[in-house]
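Morning run. Coffee first, then this:
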Amino acid sequence: AVLDPKREDDNYPFNDLCGCGVGFKLVQGYAQKYEIPFDTLIPLLDLCVVSIAADLVLMTGENRILAHFGLKRLNEEPRKGLQALINLSNLETGHVSMDDIVFKIGPRINAAGRMETGRLAVELLTATESGQAMITAERINNNNNERKNIDREITAEALEMVESGNALASENATVVYSPDWNKGVVGIVASRLVEAFYKPTVVLTKSNGLVTGSARSVSGFDLYSAIESCADLLENFGGHMYAAGLTLKEENLPEFASRMDALVKGKITEEMLTPIVDIDSPLDFSQITPKFFRILKQFQPFGPGNNNPVFMTENVYDAGNGRKVGAGGVHLKLDLIQESQPYHQIPAIGFNMSEYYDYIHEGNAMDVCYSIVENYYRGSSSMQLRIRDIREREEII
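And here it is:
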């Protein structure tokens, strides 16, 4: 049998389930047929929410229901393997969020398959004893640390390749290749290059005698269609509008890079090449109260199709405590004030935004767009702005 809610002959009322969601519905159907109590399925819900969050499927319909109750299960009674990952991720059981799954738990699980073997993830998620779960989780955590180191190294090499003019293509699309790169991280590196240059990007390496890699796009550009136009040069390819994987023979690489660059040039627009942050509403800092935040949290769980709202506030300053944080000082920790309310400080974090430090440290005004999140640290909870973008005020004069 082939279970797929997107099949044309499938009449299931919700077709945006992730793979784990389909598996859960199969088990639920089996339980109904053989009159097995539904309560026996509740321990599976923590797996559902991890899959829903990590796969970035739409947070609507049945996914939203499964995520809500899955998050409840994950925070109240997680399985041994997930509890071990929660501990190693410096998270607090009872306060794990969808973002925590996306940025901390999910990448660790994925690292097992990227760096060693996916069997480790299966062993972790099926572990029945805490001791064995922690041993496996530590091994997976080491895989993730190794993955991050390799990710940084390859990203630096790829950036240097583009900036020195040694990329296969860099004018309209970015295409880079090295036979020595780890194929488990090329998708992550492609995303990093999109962040750096904001162009459709293909990152390739060599594996089993063939060139293989991942591609990532920018908003509005159909990358899959462009790759499909190169099908005669490819051995395999698959994906969707914004992300794809492909395999080709090395002798076809120059023609592929040239054709991709030409295809992007012919179809991309200036609007697509300009990063855009969609803002839900302007907001004055005086409106950000505990009551406002409590109401906002009622819209959770957040995810694609139900994103955490993005707000924008103008004429904002740092109160003077701004500093660089994180490994290498790449993040910004700020206490923001609005010119009209200098005594109303709101803590904020800006990931990978250290480039703005000097401007902010000099006391200059800025406009910020952000989401409001809950920050747990050492047993205490606080409201925090997660900065999405910063606009220097001089840019709009």
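The radius of gyration is 23 Å. Good start to the day.
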